[in-house]
Structure formats: structure tokens, C-alpha cells
Design a protein that fits this description.
Chain A has eight helices and 22 strands. Chain A is mainly β. Chain A has a 21-stranded antiparallel sheet that branches. Chain B is about 10% helix and about 45% strand. In chain B, strands 2, 3, 5, 8 and 10 form a five-stranded antiparallel sheet that branches. A four-stranded antiparallel sheet of chain B has the order 4-9-6-7, with helices on one face. Chain B has a two-stranded antiparallel ribbon with strand order 1-11.
Chain lengths: ~475, ~170
């Protein structure tokens, strides 16, 4: 219970939205968001384990402060207020990524055309669940005073996964106006559990031969894979199992990212990408659980026999008992299953301005890397089990020096309208460092925040000769 | 991690006091019996009819730990011209009587539905008695009344009983 509420700390409405990193040219990891992004260097090597650390958590509908504020109000009253405020579209999300290694280099083909190849392996954890509103109301109120209310058991929707992703991408600048890219991915799921296809209800209505009729309709499913290692091996075996799964020994899947950057004029840039168009086939170490059934319960019928000796109400009760046991009987299977990856869309339009005031030097420079400012709008969308999650950002990018760039974002989505983010990329010689965080306005008291996201990393950059 | 330093005015020990108090209502026993039920093989009135249920829900650990108060609600509709006494006895595992609910049901001289209600509240000592109970013994005893008749196979009407439990739970960590 506590860890769950604790999550209220680190919330992210747009878990997985990396609005600051997207389009941040100096940071190599931006090409994981758009394989068709612009690349202005010859190559890079990410510092192993340190090139991309991403952490993002969020909750919608409430903040930790709503519940834990030290304001003397009754704790249970605060919980109730929050439960009634939230609905079943509110969610908790947690996402973490860690680059194990990553690198990219520009190559020249025989026809003197250049292309950029990048590759790497990262580990990712993702936990996501919707607020099970009707379960919470049932737990708070019970079915008393809720005659005819249909408690939707489908409100339960949970998924959690730890996986690793090996990827190779190719990026090609076709001409001065178009850059396109494609990234292939192999997913290796280490552990996965999800219960996202639940249906059913619990309803109490007025009865005919008794006060009430209770209707229970269940069609619920929990799918898991990769969990058995935790129970039936020794600690060293467990580490070995995890290692092998991290290195493509888990449940495997494939996917692609596609993207482009278009510059109709030096000032204007339009770009877009689709990430994780793919799936994982869960076939190893699978354990599924299902409950299925329908029951209408009106009570125990007492059938007094003409000569009162047989105990017939007992038989009736035994039957009711059996019915309930049947209803809640868990069927377990090991059937393989397929899950689509959460598909992500990023797209932005931006305007570059403010060239450095040095006309003598600039007249020969066609590609013009010296715009100092960039403003634009960015849209992010993510397909979640029950809804489309989106976020819209306005951003301003500023090159302060050659080795120091800043980007600030203002993000709006269904749940928050004042998310300010700030990112910085700094280079000292070939070593580049970046750090980005959002919801900065809430840092004065993080307990009031509903979302926090943080990314940082170190890279070694091989710059262009002209730099 | 940055965040730990700037969490203000909060008290995270409050979860210790999380208490849920749902109220759950569940059907219990239902009875529909015509005059025949109260006659023996020779068509003569018996003294009473009874039924017994081994019902281990009240004595379960869950109920013991979380039940704060209970109400058993009965509604009887009598269209027989016969008065009755309804009795529900609660026995524990050692067959010791823990609690008795009983109430009278008036006869309906013209066979019109005659509705009577009874609510039994279990709290404090009676609640403890309920939590000990694992067997319910239901007895319906025939009573004579000034306007009542003697039941025969030709007697019209029936006696119908509805019942439900309203359980006040208190769930805490």
C-alpha cells in the first residue's frame, strides 16, 4: 500500500514523453526518438551504463500532497476525497531506461554518399496501471446503498515488464531538405505480467423471492512470463538467467522505428517519428490465470421436508458454496501470447532564427549551422491499453556557446497545464554531458507534483572536421 | 532522488491509520412454504418444522477480525390463516446455543398478504455470539390464535420469508 501511494511522488503524466530530448541535436540519444533526426557529427560512443539514464514516474488525478499533507484532516477522509475525485481513466505510470552501451558512426559508401549507423543495447522497465475506481468505491462503501449500481470489474488494468532492447539504426541525409531513418529492434522480455483484458461486473439488484439478487459476472485474465526463475532456482542461477535474458535470451520480439526530418527552408524544420511498431511473442516460461463465469445468487433456499428430518437447506447451501467455488476457480494455462509494444508518435515543427552576426564568414556557408535560436511545437502520443496518451509542448532552444546549449519546454496535456522542463547539453572537448528534467515548477514541493521525469548521460563525440 | 530534499508539510506515517468501512448486504435464507408443509402423512398439523444449516461464514477468521456490527433483516409475508413463531438459533461448534432470534407471525384470516418485519442487531456481546456461531437452526412453530384456523390440505396461502444480512466491516492494515 505504502509503495503505491509513494509513487505519487514521482509522477509522470506523459511517462515516456521525452519532450526535452526530442530534437536536441547535440545529444546523440535523440536519434532513439527519431531515427531520421539530423546528425551533425561523425560519430559518438556512449559511456557504458552512463550514456542514457532515464527515469519517469507519474500519476494522474491526485498528488501525494492530497493524501499526506500534514494538515490535521482525517487521513481516511482525504483518501475518500481522492477516490471520488479520480476516475477509471486516471493512471499510474513508471518508466525507466538505462543504456548499457550505444554508439554511432558515419560511413561513406562507394558512391560517396554518406549514411550514419547507430546501435546499442538498453534495458527498460515499465509499470502501468489504471486506477481501479469501482473496486475502490466497493472497498469504501460496499454494496449497501448501491442497489442497481454495476461495479465494473474491467476497471482492473495492470501491466509490468522488464526488458532489454538491442537496436541498429540507419540514418541518411538524402539532400539538403530531407533526412530519413529506420531503426530495427529486437526485444528480449526478461519478466512480464499483465492483466489488461478484464471484463465483468458485480451488481446487486432487488430480488424476487428474496430481498436481493446478486449478480457476479467474471471474465478476467492475468498473463505472465518469465516469473518462474524467481521461485525455483538458486540465487546464482537467478543472476545467470537474468543475464542471459538481458542478452536476447528472453521472450523475443521485433519492431521498428521510422522517422524523417524535412527542412523546406533553412529556417523551418518539420520532423516526425513512430517508435516501437512491433511486438513480443511470449512463449517461454508462460503462466496464465483465468477466472470465468456467471452467478446469480438469491440466498439459501430452505426447503422444509414434510417430515422435518432431512436437512435440505444444508444441501442448498452446499450447492451455493460449490457454485461460488466454481465461479472463482482459477484456470491456469501455459498458452503463448503476443503483445504489441506501446506505439509512440513524436512530431514537431520549428523555426530557426538569430544567426551569429558575422557576415564575412557566413556568406559561403550553405547549411548554416549557426542559428542561435529555435522555437517550435511538439506533439507526443502514446497508445496505452485503454486510451491514447498525448502531450503538446512549446519549446525554445538556445545555443549559448559552442559547447553549451539549453532547451526549455512548456507542456500541456489532459492532466497538467503547467509543466515546465529544462535541458542542458554541455561539451568539454569531445566529452558531452546532458541533463534534463521537467515539472520544475513543482520542485519546491515535489509532494505536490504529479509527474517527474529525469534524463542524463555522458557521451564521447567525434565532431565534424570543420568544427 | 532530487526530490527527497524538497518534500514539505507531509506526514507519510498516516498510512498506518488507513481504515476502510464498507457496508455489505447479502441475502441469507428464503422460505416459501404452502399449508402442506405443516401437515404430516395423515393430513394432520405437525407441531413445527425445522431446518438446519452448517454455516461457517460467521465463524470465519475474516468475519472475526473485520466485522464491527451486523443486522439480520427479515420480512415475512403470510397468506395462511395460521399464526406462527419464527425462530433462528445460533449454535457454536460444541453445539452450545449462542443466540436466538424469534418473532411472531400473525395469521391472515382472509388470506390477504400480511407483512411483518424484524431486524436483529448484533453488536457488543451479541456480535461476539454471532462470531462463535457455525450452525443455524431454523424452526417455524405453529401457533393457535383466536381468529386462526386449523391447516388442512385445502388451506389456501403460503408463508414466505425473505432475509438478508447487513454487515458493517472495518478493514485496516
Amino acid at each position: 500500500m505504502r509503495w503505491l501511494l509513494f509513487l505519487g511522488f514521482f509522477v509522470s503524466l506523459q511517462a515516456q514523453n521525452k519532450q526535452i530530448l526530442y530534437g536536441f541535436k547535440e545529444v546523440p540519444q535523440q536519434i532513439l526518438l527519431n531515427p531520421g533526426a539530423q546528425i551533425d557529427y561523425k560519430g559518438y560512443i556512449g559511456v557504458p551504463l552512463l550514456s542514457h539514464i532515464h527515469f519517469n514516474a507519474g500519476v494522474t488525478g491526485f498528488s501525494a500532497f492530497d493524501i499526506f499533507a500534514d494538515d490535521g484532516r482525517d487521513f481516511n477522509q482525504k483518501i475518500q476525497d481522492v477516490v471520488y475525485d479520480m476516475d477509471s481513466k486516471d493512471f499510474f505510470g513508471f518508466n525507466q531506461q538505462l543504456d548499457l552501451f550505444s554508439a554511432g558512426f558515419r560511413f561513406k559508401s562507394s558512391s560517396e554518399k554518406t549514411f550514419f549507423i547507430s546501435f546499442g543495447l538498453y534495458q527498460e522497465s515499465d509499470v502501468f496501471f489504471y486506477f481501479p475506481k469501482d473496486y475502490a468505491v466497493l472497498a469504501l462503501e460496499g454494496n449497501y446503498n448501491n442497489l442497481n449500481r454495476r461495479f465494473n470489474l474491467g476497471d482492473l488494468s495492470v501491466s509490468a515488464e522488464v526488458s532489454s532492447v538491442f537496436h541498429v539504426g540507419i540514418n541518411k541525409k538524402i539532400n539538403s531538405k530531407w533526412t530519413v531513418g529506420l531503426r530495427g529492434k529486437i526485444y528480449s522480455s526478461i519478466v512480464q505480467a499483465s492483466s489488461t483484458e478484464n471484463y465483468g461486473s458485480f451488481t446487486t439488484v432487488e430480488g424476487t423471492s428474496n430481498f436481493l439478487t446478486h449478480r457476479i459476472d467474471l471474465d478476467m485474465k492475468l498473463q505472465t512470463s518469465g516469473l518462474s526463475f524467481a521461485t525455483d532456482s538458486t540465487a546464482t542461477n537467478q543472476v545467470d538467467v537474468l543475464k542471459s535474458r538481458l542478452l536476447l535470451g528472453g521472450n523475443l520480439g521485433v519492431g521498428i522505428d521510422v522517422g524523417f526530418t524535412h527542412e523546406p527552408s533553412p529556417e523551418w524544420t518539420i520532423d516526425a517519428s513512430l517508435q516501437d511498431l512491433g511486438f513480443i511473442n511470449y512463449s517461454k516460461d508462460v503462466q496464465n490465470y483465468e477466472v470465468n463465469g456467471y452467478l446469480e445468487y438469491e440466498g439459501i433456499q430452505s426447503v422444509f421436508p414434510p417430515i422435518a428430518s432431512d436437512q435440505t437447506a444444508q444441501e442448498y447451501w452446499d450447492e451455493v458454496n460449490d457454485d461460488f467455488e466454481d465461479l472463482f476457480k482459477v484456470d491456469s494455462t501455459t498458452t503463448a501470447y503476443i503483445k504489441w509494444r506501446p506505439l509512440k508518435l513524436n512530431t514537431s515543427v520549428s523555426y530557426n532564427f538569430g544567426k551569429k552576426n558575422n557576415k564575412e564568414c557566413n556568406c559561403l556557408d550553405k547549411s548554416d549551422p549557426t542559428f542561435q535560436n529555435r522555437v517550435g511545437a511538439h506533439l507526443f502520443a502514446l497508445k496505452r491499453p485503454n486510451h491514447l496518451q498525448w502531450a503538446l509542448s512549446a519549446f525554445y532552444y538556445r545555443k549559448l556557446f559552442k559547447g553549451l546549449q539549453l532547451k526549455t519546454t512548456y507542456t500541456v496535456d489532459t492532466y497538467s497545464s503547467k509543466n515546465v522542463g529544462l535541458g542542458m547539453s554541455a561539451a568539454l572537448g569531445p566529452v558531452q554531458f546532458y541533463i534534463m528534467a521537467d515539472n520544475l515548477l513543482d520542485y519546491q514541493n515535489v509532494a505536490k507534483s504529479q509527474s517527474v521525469s529525469l534524463q542524463l548521460g555522458f557521451n564521447y563525440i567525434f565532431k565534424n572536421n570543420e568544427d | 532522488m532530487i526530490s527527497f530534499s524538497c518534500v514539505k508539510d507531509t506526514d507519510f506515517d498516516q498510512t498506518d491509520s488507513l481504515v476502510l468501512t464498507p457496508i455489505v448486504e447479502v441475502n441469507l435464507v428464503e422460505i416459501q412454504e404452502p399449508a402442506d408443509t405443516f401437515l404430516d402423512d395423515f393430513g394432520v398439523e405437525v407441531l413445527n418444522i425445522s431446518d438446519l444449516i452448517v454455516f461457517d461464514v460467521f465463524s470465519s477468521d475474516f468475519v472475526d477480525e473485520n466485522l464491527l456490527k451486523a443486522e439480520l433483516v427479515y420480512e415475512v409475508t403470510n397468506t395462511l390463516n395460521k399464526a406462527f413463531e419464527f425462530k433462528m438459533e445460533f449454535y457454536d461448534l460444541s453445539k452450545t446455543l449462542q443466540h436466538t432470534i424469534s418473532f411472531n407471525i400473525e395469521n391472515s384470516p382472509t388470506n390477504k398478504p400480511l407483512v411483518s418485519e424484524h431486524t436483529e442487531v448484533f453488536d457488543t456481546s451479541s456480535l461476539e455470539a454471532l462470531k462463535q456461531s457455525s450452525t443455524l437452526d431454523i424452526t417455524i412453530t405453529l401457533m393457535s390464535s383466536p381468529t386462526g384456523s386449523v391447516l388442512t390440505t385445502a388451506s389456501k396461502g403460503m408463508i414466505a420469508l425473505k432475509s438478508k444480512g447487513v454487515f458493517y466491516l472495518q478493514l485496516s492494515e
